[in-house]
Fold this protein.
Amino acid sequence: MAQSEIDRLIQLLSKLPGLGPRSARRATLYLISRRESLLAPLGQAMADAAANVKTCGVCGNLDTTDPCAICGDNKRDASLLCVVEDVSDLWALERSAAFGGRYHVLGGTLSALDGIGPDELNIESLISRVEAGGISEVILALNATVDGQTTAHYLSDRLLEAGVQITRLAHGVPVGGELDYLDDGTLSAALKSRRSMG
Amino acid sequence: MAQSEIDRLIQLLSKLPGLGPRSARRATLYLISRRESLLAPLGQAMADAAANVKTCGVCGNLDTTDPCAICGDNKRDASLLCVVEDVSDLWALERSAAFGGRYHVLGGTLSALDGIGPDELNIESLISRVEAGGISEVILALNATVDGQTTAHYLSDRLLEAGVQITRLAHGVPVGGELDYLDDGTLSAALKSRRSMG
């Protein structure tokens, strides 16, 4: 069959995380049945993103400008620097709208198992940024995994001499969470960091 | 933030079946990190598909040619016509490589609940095709759902006067299936249609 365009679309879609061959076929039919409203715009959006999205040379965020909109926004507090593993973590913090400083995206965590050392991550650029001055607090907003915490300890050691305050996110009960479903580590951390009411 | 290209990509991807906002964000980051190998080719494949994929005027299949490659293939048995609900069913039968005839895609099933009557489906074109002659058997390969079977009975009535043989797919135990996990209807159908061994 000369179905090259359709087969190619299925094959490429099935490479996306969360889509297998079956759901890629389903998505392809869905797209073709919405040619004007979805298929053509999505193709255009992908071409635009491929052409215009850059990695910010300062913080490692993805944006259409370099430096990115966050690094270029003078209303944000330049003395607060939040270190995250990936752009997805930066997006999550931005959605919470709880942070008004700037970011530094490491691009992963140290991992002996995967052979990822300090040179594979944006660590030197972080040290230079902090040593350049103007930053009073570095928040290590890394995942509460073994690799995330190893990386946090490593960064905390490296930043010791820069004379800035180094903090990490609080551990505790997630808002809306039920104690019965929490693991022992989270419960014991929440108990240790208990706060006086009102 | 001036993240329009990225936000637009996330927003459009989240409309695909099986992808929500979270997996659309994940897919977007995955795509941007594979700009040359996946993002740009996928954008191109979507543009190509939007420009070139047509619905076959004979059978309702999707292809880059009209009539489609199956209708245009003279090696296929023109006397066998397999009626399916959707293009995805046609693809499934083609993957099985068990059918050498031609197809007719209805575009759905009759459904009183969803207000889909005979005029909403490619039924008149099916009747004309069969009445035009040259077809000896019509296989109603519709889903074994209530709507699928209602549609099969309706088509069987409509095709009665055309003097062709009308068949349906066999019910039974799926190959590799375990009896313990099968519903009563399938088991009782498989028992009723039992075959002599060897």
Observations:
- Residues 112 and 190 of chain A are 29 Å apart (CA to CA).
